[in-house]
Design a protein that fits this description.
The mean pLDDT is about 95. Strands 5, 10, 11, 12, 13, 15, 16, 17, 18, 19, 20, 21 and 23 form a 13-stranded antiparallel sheet that branches. The chain is mainly beta and about 280 residues long. The protein is built from two helices and 23 strands. It has a single domain, classed as Beta-galactosidase, Chain A, domain 5, CATH 2.70.98.
Length: about 280
């Protein structure tokens, strides 16, 4: 499978255009930071738990089956064991390599009534990786839209999420967030509790810190009209997910009901953008 490389002396990134333009590998100062299969083809067989992939035109879970939104009828096929439609439509699609080195994919249909385009541009500069994403509505009327990035960072890693509010359960997500407390107060560096799957809101800067002891420290900054961070630590998995997104789970329901952290309504011909900036620092033993 073709890989595109973005690298300098500090950072090495390998991207697979034919597998959703996903980051297959991310190394900083020689250390692998993503959960990466030895064979890139494994991404195709098991797409949700490796590397770092783009989520669009929605993030996390929305209801599968028929849903009426304005004059449109959505009928998304479930793709996860809990019966929901998860992580959008572009995470495994072949993306085209543009003349400027960026990547793009056009989609729509398959139960999603609006045509759209997603673009990704990666920039490596010094000890910084910049990931620029844009979702453009190619239809004739407004489209609910969401963008996200789903990286799996290898353990052992200590994490801080600088947030004041949280939706504690992504599978039974509530209309409004709670104040962070107990295991959901992640403002100090520590390990994520096993089995955690939650969404943080009201983020400060930087939104996320990660420390691989004795190896690398990283900060994650996120620029978008609205920002949430999903974190998941599945049992028996050697990685944690820390996902910058533009809306909380059940984003269409949130938009229709006026709930907190809903999907954006993207006008025809306009784009929703999100930029994720990762800065890395080498640590000494």
């Amino acid at each position: 499978m073709e890989e595109r490389a973005y690298a300098n002396d500090a950072i090495e990134v390998a991207v697979l255009p034919q597998a959703g333009a996903r980051l297959h590998r991310l190394r900083a100062f020689g250390h692998d930071l993503l959960r990466t299969p030895d064979d890139p083809a494994i991404h195709l067989a098991d797409p949700f738990f490796w590397g770092a992939y783009v989520m669009a035109p929605w993030c996390n879970r929305i209801e599968a089956g028929p849903v009426r939104f304005a004059s449109h009828r959505l009928h998304i096929t479930p793709n996860f064991p809990d019966g929901t439609a998860i992580h959008g439509q572009v995470y495994l699609r072949p993306w085209a390599v543009e003349n400027d080195g960026g990547l793009a994919v056009r989609m729509g249909g398959e139960g999603w009534p609006w045509p759209y385009e997603v673009r990704q541009r990666l920039v490596v500069s010094g000890a910084e990786l910049r990931i620029e994403l844009a979702l453009t509505n190619l239809g004739r009327d407004a489209m609910p839209g969401g963008l996200g990035l789903h990286p799996w960072f290898v353990k052992p890693v200590r994490v801080a999420i600088h947030a004041g509010g949280v939706f504690p359960d992504n599978t039974e997500t509530e209309a409004s967030p709670r104040d962070v407390a107990g295991p959901f107060d992640q403002r100090a560096l520590g390990e994520l509790a096993e089995g955690m799957d939650a969404t943080w809101v009201d983020l400060s800067d930087p939104a996320v810190e990660l420390v691989w002891p004795g190896r690398v420290r990283a900060t994650m900054r996120i620029h978008a009209p609205q920002v949430v961070v999903v974190a998941a630590s599945p049992p028996d998995t050697d990685a944690v997910a820390l996902e910058p997104q533009t809306h909380a789970p059940q984003g269409i329901r949130r938009l229709m009901n006026g709930e907190h952290a809903a999907m954006e309504l993207v006008p025809p011909g306009e784009a929703l953008s999100m930029t994720v900036v990762l800065n890395f620092e080498q640590l000494k033993d």
